[in-house]
Design a protein that fits this description.
Elements lengths: L7 H15 L4 H13 L3 H17 L3 H13 L5 H14 L3 H19 L5 H7 L3 H10 L6 H10 L8 E3 L4 H15 L5 H21 L1 E3 L11 H8 L3 E7 L2 E8 L2 E9 H19 L5 H18 L11 E5 L12 H4 L3 E5 L18 E5 L6 H11 L6 E2 L3 H5 L5 E5 L2 E2 L9 E4 L2 E4 H7 L10 E7 L15 H8 L1 E7 L8 H13 L4 H11 L7 H8 L1 E4 L4
Organism: Nostocoides australiense Ben110
InterPro entries: CHAT_dom
Protein name: CHAT domain-containing protein
Length: 553
């Protein structure tokens, strides 16, 4: 198209994008297009193209060419500040100047965090901060010669900063109502194909307006810096297991009693593939595909990973564990590993930071909201049982009442299906009888206490797959963001939990909470109660993918 219109600049930019997508690694061609852009006076675009050429040359292990391209980025008059910082960091790494590389990576992270702090909504903030992944990896490369403790401290200390609390915007009630109506119609079976296409376009337009106006920030900058290793270990009060990408490897760290150990699990891409295969295998078992071959494949994967982690993670059934996972591993079913199965494991993401260190205490008489949804056989029984367990403190609602009650709730339990949006996880929705409830709505309705921490103690998402998360290096799943802004602890699954098993699991969780323990402890008790009965293989597989999520401070 650009060629037909005789627009060489457009041709150059799209050609670089095409070379990136086809993976050919033709850095010389990219460099040629960068030169064209520079000669056209587009120095900013030229710097970006030089940077892409440098990455391609680096992948091909042509270090001299890569450094030449990077120096052109540095020399560019109008290159973005983060692009220059990346080039300087990569040049320093090439010469093993780790201190200089660290300094440039930290500078770039500060710039990115400053830009992200201007975002109105958490999903927008995380999208703006996708550049963080590049500099997080650069910083880790600059720390490869450090001790295990120093390396882990840097990983934790350079997470995104906690954000200031968000306050509801104004004049958006009609847009939210319009979104709910459109979502209900799109998901119904009553609209013809032509109308559905029109509704889809309308829905996208409303979502854009909501993202632009839904929230206004109370403050004007990011919040407190994340804790490093010593402070996080002290607040957690239990051992830490951290799994992160360093270079091309997935590396696990275990910290307990002032001792830090690390082990390479395997190639990062292979570990991601194994986690995806393990989740799919559990889903097959949970939905009745419990063949011997399927079970053997799942068990083999779990046992191999368990054996690798055994080098640093002791078997301590019953002892709490905080597991912090890198981007792309948010929904990894690590509870299926034998050495974690009976532990009260809480899961956190390296991509989010809790606003304050301490979780809110559960009041003696907690305010509990229980909501159910349609097309779920045991939803009414589960919701009624949960509500009855809390007595008069648990109003039971099927829809609109949630909006009025959720802001004051200490515990919210949803026995309902959900639709996961991979392109924008926070636009995922929970299906109630009167229509969908978007996760953005939950964040809008949630309240913070005097210490700016989420007031809700537990958000329990039963019978849906909202814990599923993108397996790429930049996107953040919905549940980590809910743990950051809505509730101190979020229970969610990456695969559907069998309807008939949900009430028993909920009973175990709430029994643990009411006796002063964590929701994670309740899940561990529910897993342990299953035993080895082969008739319950499907339930065990589903519980492998059900976890308690928190935001690490």
């Amino acid at each position: 198209m650009y060629e037909a219109q005789d627009r060489p600049v457009g041709v150059a930019i799209t050609s670089v994008h095409a070379l990136i997508l086809d993976g050919s690694g033709d850095h010389a061609a990219m460099a040629g297009y960068a030169e064209q852009l520079a000669q056209s006076g587009l120095s900013r675009d030229a710097a970006w193209a030089w940077s892409q050429a440098a990455s391609a040359a680096g992948e091909g292990r042509e270090s001299a060419a890569a450094e030449d391209y990077l120096r052109r980025v540095v020399a560019s008059d109008n290159a973005d500040a983060t692009l220059k910082a990346e080039a300087l960091a990569r040049i320093a790494l090439a010469h093993s100047d780790f201190a200089t590389a660290r300094a440039h990576a930290v500078t770039a992270l500060g710039i990115i965090d400053g830009r992200a702090a201007l975002a109105d909504a958490p999903d927008l903030r995380h999208r703006i901060a996708t550049e963080r992944a590049t500099f997080e990896l650069l910083l880790r490369d600059a720390c490869v010669a450090d001790s295990a403790a120093a390396q882990l401290d840097s990983l934790l200390r350079h997470r995104p900063p906690a954000q200031q609390p968000l306050a509801p915007g104004t004049a958006v009630d009609d847009q939210r109502a319009h979104w709910r109506d459109l979502s209900r119609r799109v998901e119904s079976a009553q609209e013809d194909p032509f109308t559905l296409a029109t509704l889809g376009a309308d829905l996208a337009a409303v979502e854009r307006r909501l993202r632009a106006t839904e929230w206004t920030r109370e403050g004007g900058s990011g919040g407190r810096a994340p804790f490093g290793l010593a402070d996080l270990a002290a607040v957690a009060g239990c051992p830490l297991l951290v799994v992160a990408r360093i270079g091309r490897d997935a590396v696990a760290f275990h910290h307990d009693d002032d001792r830090t150990e690390r082990v390479v699990i395997g190639a990062w891409d292979q570990v991601l593939a194994d986690m995806g295969q393990l989740t799919r295998g559990c889903a097959r078992l949970a939905t009745g595909g419990a063949s011997e071959a399927a079970y053997a494949a799942v068990r083999s994967l779990a046992m191999d990973l368990d054996a690798t982690l055994g080098a640093i993670l002791p078997e301590e059934a019953g002892r709490e564990l905080l597991v912090v996972l890198d981007r792309g591993l948010d929904s990894a079913p690590l509870t299926g590993l034998p050495r974690i199965w009976e532990r009260a494991a809480r899961f956190a993401s390296l991509a989010v930071t809790a606003p304050v260190p301490q979780q809110p205490a559960l009041p003696a008489r907690p305010r509990v909201v229980v909501a159910e949804g349609p097309r779920l056989q045991y939803a009414a029984d589960e919701a009624a049982e949960v509500a009855q367990g809390w007595g008069d403190d648990a109003p039971l609602t099927t829809g609109t009442g949630v909006s009025e009650m959720i802001g004051e709730a200490d515990i919210a339990h949803f026995a309902a299906h959900a639709t996961l949006r991979w392109d924008n996880p926070l636009q995922s929705s929970i299906h109630l009888h009167d229509g969908p409830l978007a996760l953005t709505e939950l964040i809008r309705l949630a309240r913070v206490d005097a210490a700016d921490r989420p007031r809700m103690r537990l958000l329990y998402l039963s019978a849906c797959s909202l814990a599923s998360a993108p397996s790429d290096a930049v996107m953040v799943g919905a549940v980590p963001m809910l743990a950051e802004r809505v509730a101190a602890e979020v229970i969610a699954s990456s695969i559907p939990l069998p309807d008939e098993a949900a009430p028993a699991v909920a009973r175990a969780v709430y029994a643990a909470i009411s006796s002063g323990h964590s929701a994670a402890a309740g899940l561990a008790q529910a897993r342990a109660a299953l035993g080895e009965d082969p008739e319950r293989t499907g339930v065990r597989a589903a519980l492998t993918c059900l976890a308690a999520y928190v935001a690490a401070p």
